[in-house]
Amino acid sequence: MATQVTTTANAQRSSSFLQIAIVLQTLTIFLQAVSAGLLLTSHYGETLHSVGARVMYGASMLYVLAAVLAWKPGGGSPRPIWHATGFLVLASVQVVLGIAHVPSVHLPLGCLMFGLSVLALARR
Q1: Which among 80, 73, 69, 72 has a CA at the least distance from the CA of 4?
Q2: Farthest-apart Cα atoms in the chain, separation
Q3: E strand or H helix at 44, and its extent?
Q4: What DSSP character marks residue 78?
Q5: Do residues 81 and 69 lie in contact, with contact meaning Cβ atoms separated by under 8 Å?
Q6: What's 102's DSSP letter?
Q7: pLDDT digits (tens, 9 = 90+) for 38-63
Q8: Which residues of 34-67 are buried (b: 16+ CB within 10 A; e: fewer)?
Q9: Model pTM?
Q10: CB-based contact 90:28 (threshold 8 Å)
Q11: Rounded to an integer, what is the distance from CA 108 to the centroid of its chain?
């Protein structure tokens, strides 16, 4: 009985961590959109957008870690891991496109990523 309660508590804690990781990811992507606007209108926008890209990428890696930790204790579906990994791949493509200055793909992909992140947040 005590083992079951401990396992349930660990699963809930991991699920909360997953929820926090998705919220953080969604927030960082939104802030990237704001800093992209500043990039066009101010001299410090490029610095904010560059730092924000690193933070967003870190948030995507945290999402993968949280998905693995949420899956492992309960032995549930690995589907969140696939979603998080796919998102990390999109974030990697987004970084490469940003560095290569390909706004025709970089901007729509950023919008798609924000929408997918909000969708993942709504599912939780």
Answers
A1: 73
A2: 61
A3: none
A4: S
A5: no
A6: -
A7: 988 998 999 999 999 999 999 999 99
A8: ebbebbeeeeebeebbeebbeebbebbbbbbebb
A9: 0.85
A10: no
A11: 17
Quote the tokens at residue 66. 């949280």
Among candidate residues 61, 115, 52, the one with its CA nearest the CA of residue 89: 61
CB 13 within 8 A of CB 66: no
Q: Is 124 helix (H, G, I), strand (E, B) or coil?
A: coil
> What is the rounded CA–CA span in Å between residue 101 and residue 120?
28
Using alpha carbons, select from 123, 30, 110 the residue that is nearest to residue 80: 123
Digit-coded pLDDT (tens) for 19-37: 999 999 999 999 999 999 9
How many residues make up the chain in this entry?
Answer: 124
Structure tokens at 29: 């992507």
44/69 Cα distance (integer angstroms): 37
User: Cα(22)–Cα(50) distance, rounded to whole angstroms?
Assistant: 21
